[in-house]
Amino acid sequence: MKNLKVTTHHLLLNELKNLSPSSIVDDDARFIDQDCIITSAGVSAGIDMSLYLVEKLFSHDLKVRTAAYIEYPIKEY
Fold first, then answer.
1. Mean pLDDT confidence for 36-44
2. What percentage of the chain has pLDDT greater than the value 90?
């Protein structure tokens, strides 16, 4: 993850910074898309990231329908 902007669960941010000092760790992001890698900040952030990917790969409509199916409120980022 050299020179990539990344994130992770808030309890592991310092560990990520130590393990990958060349990474640009964003303490506040729920997820980050760097094209070659997507990182998220935990379980619910992973759901947000997954819905983002559904929209990116398929459509906004499918994202909305998927969120409704799993009864998850859509957050816009």
1. 94
2. 90
Q: Which residue matches tokens 């902007």? A: 5
Residue 22 per-residue DSSP state: T
| Tokens (6 digits) for 46 | 């992973």
pLDDT of residue 1: 84
Q: Is 12 in a helix, a strand, or coil?
A: helix
Q: What is the DSSP secondary-structure string of 40-74?
A: ESSHHHHHHHHHHHHHHHT-HHHHHHHHHHTT---
Tens digit of each residue's pLDDT (9 = 90 or more) over 50-63 = 999 999 999 999 99
- For residue 40, what pLDDT is reported? 97
How far is residue 50's CA from residue 72's CA, in Å, rounded to a whole number? 12
Report the candidate in 5, 73, 7 with the shortest Cα–Cα distance to residue 41.
7
How would you classify residue 5: left for phi > 0, otherwise alpha for psi between -120 and 50, otherwise beta? Answer: beta
